[in-house]
């Protein structure tokens, strides 16, 4: 798949911040049945186009909308002055011309989605099924201690650097370690301190998140060595959620939607028929 198959369909502005919707429409020859609308939510310092490797492996009948959100790469990260991540995600959903049948969210985006799904009173997107890819889900930390703050900052810097490395590789660029360090320092110079502080505040909300309110089916895809969602913390999510499927594989990293897209797409493709959309299981697996 190439970027030419995507189109920027809509752009809206709220409080001086741009939200954009990029779309890949379903294959016109795929059949007359309504295509499931899969909405893609990127992580912190990523972009809508980070989903392109994954879409190469999803059924061609899927209609995909990739959101460009305020925490995208290059952001000044002043967006929290006008709402938390869940609020901005809801605004982006409002810009869609059709509600999502499934939302697939990565890392920080998955954290925002969980917070939106757990909100009360009920909102229009409360029952939307969700696939959480390498979610940021750490509830066992004592989030307001100096020790955790320092550890979280170290992990944040590591993740930003790893994400930059993945983006460069995806775009066909190879850089040596010293050049990567210089590029990462430039990114961190822009992102810190405001970006990290907002990321940290989102993490600090997770232990009190009322997951039991979430009525939507959830799929979690990730690897056991991903420090963003330790195994014990994921077990807490599994116990508290009403309807959840967890798939963890040893070779899945934090950026598995880009590095292991076929495996992630397989889990999503198997999850879609379980949602009882207007497609048979066989259609979705073989399309």
From TrEMBL:
Q: Which SUPFAM superfamilies match?
A: alpha/beta-Hydrolases (SSF53474)
Q: Does the keyword Metal-binding apply?
A: no
Tell me one GO molecular function of this protein: hydrolase activity
Q: What keywords are annotated for this sequence in UniProt?
A: Hydrolase
Any coiled-coil regions, as ranges: none
Q: Does the keyword ATP-binding apply?
A: no
Ranges for domain AB hydrolase-1 come to 38-266
Q: What name appears for this protein in its UniProt entry?
A: Alpha/beta hydrolase
Species for this entry:
Streptomyces sirii
Lineage, uppermost ranks: Bacteria, Bacillati, Actinomycetota, Actinomycetes, Kitasatosporales
């Amino acid at each position: 798949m190439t970027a030419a198959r995507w189109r920027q369909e809509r752009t809206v502005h709220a409080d001086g911040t741009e939200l954009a919707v990029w779309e890949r429409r379903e294959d016109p020859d795929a059949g007359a049945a309504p295509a499931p609308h899969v909405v893609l939510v990127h992580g912190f310092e990523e972009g809508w186009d980070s989903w392109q490797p994954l879409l190469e492996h999803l059924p061609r009948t899927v209609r995909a909308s990739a959101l460009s959100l305020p925490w995208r790469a290059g952001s000044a990260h002043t967006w929290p002055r006008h709402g938390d991540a869940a609020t901005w995600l809801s605004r982006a959903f409002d810009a869609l011309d059709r509600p999502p049948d499934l939302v697939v969210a990565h890392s920080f985006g998955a954290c925002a989605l969980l917070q939106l799904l757990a909100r009360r009173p009920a909102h229009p997107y409360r029952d939307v099924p969700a696939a959480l890819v390498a979610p940021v889900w750490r509830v066992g930390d004592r989030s307001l201690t100096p020790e955790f703050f320092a550890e979280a900052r170290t992990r944040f810097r590591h993740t930003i650097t790893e994400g930059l490395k993945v983006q460069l590789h995806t775009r066909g660029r190879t850089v040596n370690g010293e050049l990567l360090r210089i590029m990462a320092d430039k990114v961190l110079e822009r992102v810190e301190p405001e970006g990290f502080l907002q990321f940290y505040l989102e993490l600090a909300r997770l232990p009190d998140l009322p997951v039991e309110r979430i009525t939507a089916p959830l799929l979690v895809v990730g690897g056991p060595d991903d420090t963003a969602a330790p195994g014990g913390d994921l077990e807490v999510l599994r116990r508290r959620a009403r309807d959840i499927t967890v798939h963890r594989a040893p070779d899945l990293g934090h950026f598995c939607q880009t590095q292991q897209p076929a495996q992630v797409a397989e889990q999503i493709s198997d999850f879609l028929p379980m949602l009882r959309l207007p497609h048979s299981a066989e259609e979705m697996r073989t399309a």
